[in-house]
Specification:
6-stranded mixed beta sheet, 705 residues, TIM Barrel, Chitobiase, domain 2, 22 helices, alpha/beta, 38% helix, Alpha-d-glucuronidase, C-terminal Domain, single chain, binds 4-O-methyl-alpha-D-glucopyranuronic acid, 3 domains
Length: 705
């Protein structure tokens, strides 16, 4: 297409679109596109409400606040917003803290502000100096930035803007992305290109994307990022890398985004002689034993060095004694010994340790699902106060669906950080449209009964159940160098949803989807509803065509993408498919009930009993907890085998429906986005069909029906 006809096509498509979407959208603008409001009446009202702004004070964060207000409102209102020093007219936006802004002080909102903490904010429609104003007030500047993004979100999503009375503060203190980025630029389980961090070019060259990344996170309230993989390379702690990290931290800082690092536990050791060994370090010690005085001193010195370079450094994330990574058990010590030596080094500077509970040493228990609980629960109360134990949502490994991890509720004296996976390792990578907020809500809302009814995972995570001194949530990032950041346009919705839930886990998956659609795809009511419906059922559909009714880990070995239910190795090992599904002529599923591995005993009553009895176990977890005969009668009246087949078919059917639905949006969403998603859906349908055909053909050999 020549450039003239391209432009004409663009103009034509802008006219066609009922929402305010531009043409040829490569997705790089995420949910912060700020396209002009199409509805003229609303545009007029908004222009009256937001005609000028007063942002008092000067700092890097306040400059970003000004920039964002200007960029947002100029785009949305097709205006040229001006800034003033004083409130002289109706329609002024006033942004400030009590400390820096006299008009804010004059409002007397101190008592309300006190309850908000450093990151919260108020947005109120108010009369100030006799003029109609919209006020964003906070205790700290970062609260002002969060409030600014909140107000712009309201404009973007066409929320009511008169009589604003918003009070918002995060329910969880540490809201982090975990990048599994390697130092060579590859990303473990990354499906959107290469790493964003260009280590070779840093610190001299600052890629503009670092700033865009920080801005996107700030727009959601994400306040920390672990930039390197938990399978950490110790070189990240070398002085040359600390300089690179300083440069990144400087970009992130005004956006309220703290830098954290994954560290290798063996860092104090001499470098490993063998290439590729996970055992070496960057020091000169003979041991990394956490109780060795020299090792303790090494970590203290390293912490001091880091804080000299990055004064607001957040802390360490650690994968130890897991999947070949070194750890304290190499020296006969336990996890708390390991975590505490790091905690001691970081404590003087306010740093924290996030010690991962993703461990599954076969010596602990023959059932992988039981191992983390058995290693960690006895250590409750032994960890230093600045240590989180970070646990995945389920006991195995980010499967399409798992029951909740039994650690939640079982460590009342140790702050647990909930680790979710935004990148779709086991959910079709960045090829399948799978909206994950409904999954995360299922975990957050799950009632552990740890302290009786009402002991949800959300309450464990936000600290309200056990009165944790610190609270945290982490999401394994799905970002990369692709223009659209996440590989699949709809995978952006998962980054978005993670951030929104981290801020407020009470938001519904529907609300978050609505916001994202309006900010990313279209503000047209009908188009929005259509897309929301597609998104809301997509997770359940993926479970159906991959691992229905509690089946798990039957993906291709290593790659974790397509199906490989036949994968076996003798003896039956815990990373093979046959270990997990245990299909035989009698039935299918892993007996984790009291007649089997007794993993059900790790849950609190009455969850334990509910899971333990095949008659009361929710069918969605049936084959996770029970080995069930093929002719077992399901609630539907069908046999188990019929029900499995029905699920695989229904999963495929859903993908077909998504395709049909998406076709109806032709001409109503951006043409580039339209064809991008259209192509992805074709792949998803092929994959879903392959999943069904492979799994049914395999299980058929046992079910023999
Ligand atoms: C970073 C799973 C993944 C690994 C990942 C590991 C972890 O096993 O497949 O790629 O390693 O989880 O969470 O540490």
């Amino acid at each position: 297409m020549n450039s003239t006809s391209h432009i004409l096509l663009c103009i034509a498509s802008v006219f066609l679109l009922t929402g305010s979407v531009a043409c040829a959208d490569d997705g790089s603008g995420l949910w912060l596109k700020y396209h002009r409001i199409a509805d003229e009446a609303r545009l007029r009202t908004c222009r009256q409400s937001f005609s000028t702004a007063v942002v008092q004070g000067d700092s890097a964060t306040l400059r970003i606040v000004r920039e964002e207000i200007k960029r947002g409102l100029d785009g949305l209102l097709d205006a040229n917003l001006s800034f003033g020093e004083a409130i002289r007219q109706d329609g002024t936006i006033i942004v400030g803290t009590v400390q820096t802004s006299a008009p804010i002080r004059s409002l007397g909102w101190d008592t309300d502000l006190e309850k908000l903490g450093p990151e919260g904010f108020l947005i109120r429609s108010s009369q100030v100096n006799g003029h109609r104003a919209t006020v964003i007030a906070a205790n700290e500047e970062i609260g002002l930035l969060y409030g600014t993004f909140d107000l712009l979100r309201r404009v973007q999503t066409q929320a009511a803007l008169d009589k604003l009375n918003v009070t918002s503060h995060p329910r969880i203190q540490y809201r982090l992305l975990n990048h599994w980025d390697n130092m060579d630029g590859s990303i473990e389980r990354g499906y959107a290109g290469r790493s964003l961090w260009q280590w070779d070019a840093l610190p001299a060259r600052i890629d503009p994307r670092y700033r865009d990344y920080a801005r996107a996170n700030a727009s959601l309230g994400i306040n920390g990022t672990v930039v390197n993989s938990v399978n950490a390379n110790p070189i990240i702690l070398q002085p040359a890398y600390l300089e690179k990290l300083r440069a990144l931290a400087e970009v992130f800082r005004p956006y309220g985004l703290k830098l954290f690092l994954s560290i290798r536990f063996s860092s104090p050791l001499r470098p490993a002689r063998q290439a590729g060994s996970r055992r070496g370090g960057i020091g000169n010690l003979e041991t990394a034993d956490p109780l060795d005085p020299e090792v303790r001193q090494w970590w203290k010195d390293k912490a001091k060095e880091i804080y000299e370079v990055i004064p607001d450094f957040g802390g360490f994330l650690v994968k130890a004694n897991s999947e070949g990574m070194p750890g304290p058990q190499d020296y006969g010590r336990h996890h708390a010994d390991g975590a505490n030596v790091l905690a001691e080094a970081l404590a003087p500077y306010g740093g924290i340790v996030m010690w991962r509970a993703f461990v599954y040493d076969a010596k602990t228990d023959p059932d992988r699902a039981k191992r983390a609980y058995k290693e960690f629960v006895p250590l409750d109360g032994v960890f230093a106060p600045n240590v989180f134990v970070q646990a995945k949502n389920g006991p195995i490994d980010f499967q399409p669906r798992e029951p909740v991890h039994p650690l939640f509720g079982a460590m009342p004296k140790t702050p647990l950080m909930l680790e979710l996976q935004i990148t779709q390792e086991y959910l079709g990578h960045s090829k399948h449209l799978v909206y994950l907020a409904p999954m995360w809500k299922e975990y957050l809302d799950f009632d552990t009964h740890a302290e009786g009814p009402g002991s949800s995972v959300a309450k464990v995570t936000d600290g309200s159940l056990h009165d944790y001194a610190m609270t945290g949530i982490a999401g394994v990032a799905n970002t990369g160098s692709d223009a659209n950041w996440c590989g699949h346009l709809f995978a952006q919705a998962n980054w978005y949803a993670f951030g929104r839930l981290a801020w407020d886990h009470q938001l519904s998956a529907e609300t978050i989807a609505d916001e994202w659609i309006r900010m990313t795809l279209s503000r047209d009511e009908q188009a929005g509803q259509t897309v929301r419906l597609m998104m809301m059922g997509s997770w359940e559909a993926c479970i159906s065509y991959m691992t229905p009714l509690g089946l798990h880990h039957i993906m291709q070995a290593g790659f974790h993408y397509g199906p490989q239910p036949s994968y076996a190795r003798a003896p039956r090992e815990d990373w093979t498919s046959v270990y997990y599904h245990r299909a035989d002529s009698n039935g299918v599923g892993f007996d984790r009930s009291s007649t089997g591995s007794n993993a059900t005993s790790q849950y609190f009553s009455p969850v334990r009993e509910r899971f333990d009895d095949v008659a009361t176990c929710p069918e969605k977890y049936l084959l996770w907890f029970h080995h069930v005969p093929w002719d077992h009668k399901m609630a539907s009246g069908r046999t188990l085998w019929q029900e499995i087949r029905r699920h695989y078919d229904a999963g495929i059917e859903y993908v077909k429906q998504m395709q049909e639905t998406w076709e109806t949006l032709k001409g109503r969403v951006d043409p580039e986005i339209f064809s991008h998603v259209q192509t992805k859906l074709e792949t998803q349908l092929q994959d879903a069909t392959l999943w069904r055909d492979t799994c049914l053909a395999y299980f058929q050999t046992f079910a023999q029906e």
